[in-house]
Design a protein that fits this description.
19 helices; mainly alpha
């Protein structure tokens, strides 16, 4: 097996070489690394002059990024890119490994799932984003829950919140499926992470940081709603009827319906041998839909949902297979190079990937209902 590290090194080198011909830096990696430098200097993390690339993570995540400030920026970028490639392979492998009652061969599932998530993975690698650490923590939570360690599962989800706050979408799953003790553990870990920066900034300084975080997240939502690659419910309604109170109200109503459907999923069809994988997969599909700044490549974390659809394809009727296929085409293959400019812009203006993600979520509900039947 000595050849594996060599192959991995060659893959990383090749991918990074291609990337550097297109980009001068990993723009999303730069943001938390800069925040880590400010954290060490006890400076304000959230600064308006950063423009589009303002730091939007919780303050504690800047502390996690401190080790990357010990290296020159160029080396830190190579290190993060290498880690991202490794995490992508691990996440895909664990998504297949954790799938209960698997029907298809693991290797075939991995390759097919990679095909359906390549669009998202390319962007993740190209931007140097942090969806993969979040994804690994959540799939780790699923595996922990499968093994009966619900407290560990809750703690891992809480840790994921500090990588990306939209891991909070899994709170209903923790409360309903894992129980109140797990919810308590989640709350304690979350509270500890929120308080941690007070050791460096003082209590009032930490409160100011949290207020600044909220201000940045809310202030940068509206300008991003009409972005072509924003697939949130808020963006969908803004594109369909125009930004404004009506679109915001409809986005909120759609979010409530989607979350309520997840609760019904857990309650109505609860008597299954292993409920965790499908339920978490459902809520992961919702993440970029609920987050007002949900970019299309965030669907990378919904890889378990794609793995599940691929594995249970034969369990769907022809009509439902058509629904799933449309969902996959609209999410995984809305690529400029495939559709070219006119059709691509048309699809993005009409929020086609959002519709596709909704269809995938609906298919997961159908799979659960069919499993019970």
């Amino acid at each position: 097996m000595v050849w594996r590290p060599l192959v991995f090194t060659l893959i990383v080198a090749g991918l990074y070489g291609v990337l550097r011909t297109q980009r001068t830096e990993l723009v999303d990696f730069r943001v938390p690394r800069l925040a880590a430098e400010r954290f060490l200097a006890h400076e304000q993390l959230y600064q308006a002059e950063d423009g589009h690339y303002q730091y939007k993570y919780f303050p504690a995540f800047a502390l996690v990024m401190v080790p990357f400030t010990w290296l020159p920026k160029a080396i830190a970028e190579v290190l993060w890119f290498t880690l991202t490639v490794a995490m992508s392979w691990l996440f895909l492998r664990l998504s297949v490994f954790a799938l209960p009652d698997r029907r298809r061969a693991a290797t075939a599932l991995m390759w097919l799932a990679l095909l359906l998530t390549t669009k998202f993975l390319v962007k993740e690698l190209g931007f140097g984003n942090f969806n993969l650490p979040l994804a690994l923590l959540i799939i780790g939570a699923v595996i922990a829950a499968q093994r009966g360690s619900v407290m560990t599962a809750a703690a891992l989800v809480a840790a994921a919140v500090f990588v990306k706050p939209y891991a909070l979408v899994l709170v209903p799953w923790i409360a309903w499926r894992l129980g109140w003790r797990a919810l308590l553990v989640f709350g304690l870990v979350l509270a500890a992470g929120l308080v941690l920066p007070a050791a460096f900034y003082g209590w009032q300084g930490n409160v100011t940081l949290l207020q600044s975080w909220y201000g940045v997240v809310t202030a940068t939502t509206a300008p991003n709603l009409m972005g072509a690659e924003n697939i949130s419910f808020a963006s969908m309604w803004a594109k369909w009827i125009g930004p404004g109170p009506a679109a915001a109200a409809l986005a909120l109503a759609t979010t409530i319906v989607a979350v309520a459907a997840g609760l019904v999923l857990m309650w109505r069809w609860r008597n299954v041998r292993e409920p965790y994988y499908l339920e978490v997969g459902y809520f992961l599909v919702l993440v970029p839909l609920i987050s007002p700044q949900g970019w299309d490549y965030v669907l990378l974390i919904a890889t378990p949902a794609y793995v599940l659809l691929l594995d249970r394809w034969r369990d769907l009727t022809p009509a439902w297979r058509a629904v799933a296929l449309v969902g996959v085409l609209l999410t995984s293959f809305t690529v400029f190079d495939i559709y070219r400019r006119t059709l691509y812009i048309f699809l993005m203006q009409w929020a086609a990937p959002t519709v596709g993600a909704m269809l995938i979520a609906i298919c997961l509900i159908r799979l659960r209902a069919r499993a019970i039947a």
